[in-house]
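wait is this the right file?? whatever heres the structure
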């Protein structure tokens, strides 16, 4: 099999996730938020990095990036797409099975200032408890997790039967799963994410994918307008001094 053939699945996926203007706009908004939450020279973990679109952006703005993905095709394409940053060490591709990610002793990049998970990789994980535990071991004491996840309230999904069949489950339990091509696809409310991140993190802030902040009892109205929502998690017990140092 030629190198071009091996890279084709990654190239096709990269084109597919950039096809819709709304997805491009949401990705750019998420990337900008990552840059605002970090500083030049910081080391980030791009969890579920896929073809490397985000890793390329972060490295181009002076961040050092460890780009993790479970898919070998994505990782191969990522190395080509980010080749100039891979060559300088600004991007370090990391391909491993999910269980290996959870159990790995030595991790490229050391401790991270921020873990970014864009385009809903957290929606593909059945049990987030182990993942948040792992994130806690990888972050610096004042580190953050920023995730783009599917909004369970998105009005555009109401055209599908599975959305209506699971509406009662969402209200009662805060989450539900529908079968996907290779795994379950979970929809979770912000309150459910706040529950499963404990005791390692606390949900500090939530935005709709257009970066409208959501809070209060009618937050679902804003979340209904966007396919994605952004969630910011802080380390549980991080001191005010640590947080101030991060903002300085």
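ok assuming it is, sequence goes like this
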């Amino acid at each position: 099999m030629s190198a071009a053939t091996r890279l084709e699945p990654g190239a096709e996926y990269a084109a597919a996730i950039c096809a819709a203007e709304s997805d491009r706009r949401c990705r750019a908004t998420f990337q900008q938020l990552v840059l605002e939450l970090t500083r030049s020279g910081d080391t980030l973990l791009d969890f579920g990095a896929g073809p490397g679109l985000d890793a390329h952006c972060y490295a181009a703005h002076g961040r050092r990036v460890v780009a993790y993905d479970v898919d070998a095709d994505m990782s191969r394409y990522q190395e080509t797409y980010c080749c100039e940053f891979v060559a300088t060490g600004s991007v370090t591709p990391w391909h491993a099975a999910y269980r290996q990610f959870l159990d790995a002793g030595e991790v490229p990049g050391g401790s991270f200032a921020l873990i970014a998970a864009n385009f809903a990789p957290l929606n593909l994980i059945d049990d987030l408890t182990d993942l948040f535990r792992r994130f806690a071991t990888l972050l610096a004491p004042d580190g953050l997790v920023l995730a783009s996840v599917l909004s369970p309230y998105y009005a555009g999904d109401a055209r599908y039967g599975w959305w209506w069949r699971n509406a009662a489950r969402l209200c009662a339990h805060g989450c539900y799963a529908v079968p996907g091509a290779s795994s379950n696809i979970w929809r979770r409310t912000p309150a459910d994410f706040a529950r499963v991140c404990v005791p390692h993190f606390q949900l500090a802030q939530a935005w709709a994918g257009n970066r409208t902040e959501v809070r209060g009892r009618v937050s679902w109205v804003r979340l209904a307008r966007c396919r994605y929502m952004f969630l910011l998690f802080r380390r549980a017990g991080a001191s005010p001094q640590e947080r101030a140092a991060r903002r300085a």
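Residues 158 and 164 are 7 Å apart (CA to CA). so i think its the right one actually
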